[in-house]
């Protein structure tokens, strides 16, 4: 957000919004893995894995958004 406030470049603001969602998903992955270990629950590992697949795509597109200002 600070970078957007300074530059006023829309891709920076867009990427910020994307990374907020990404951070929330990483927190969820950590929670699921923690609970999987505590409860010996493989289904939670599978849920975390599904989120990680989604995270990969979201992180790729967030970085592509930032790439717009690098060229």
Structural key phrases:
3 helices; mainly alpha; 71 residues
Provide the fold topology.
Layout: H1 2-7, H2 10-39, H3 42-67
Helix pairs in contact: 2-3
Instruction: Outline the low-pLDDT stretches.
Output: none
Global geometry:
elongated
Please state the average pLDDT score: 95
For the biggest sheet, the summary is: none
Describe this structure in words.
It contains three helices and no strands. It is mostly helical. Helix 2 runs antiparallel to helix 3. It is elongated. The chain starts with a helix and ends with a helix.
Describe what is shown at a glance.
With 71 residues, the chain is mostly helical.
């Amino acid at each position: 957000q600070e970078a957007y406030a300074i530059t006023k470049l829309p891709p920076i603001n867009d990427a910020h919004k994307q990374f907020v969602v990404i951070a929330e998903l990483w927190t969820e992955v950590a929670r699921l893995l923690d609970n999987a270990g505590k409860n010996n629950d493989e289904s939670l590992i599978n849920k975390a894995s599904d989120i990680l697949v989604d995270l990969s795509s979201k992180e790729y597109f967030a970085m592509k958004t930032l790439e717009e200002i690098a060229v």
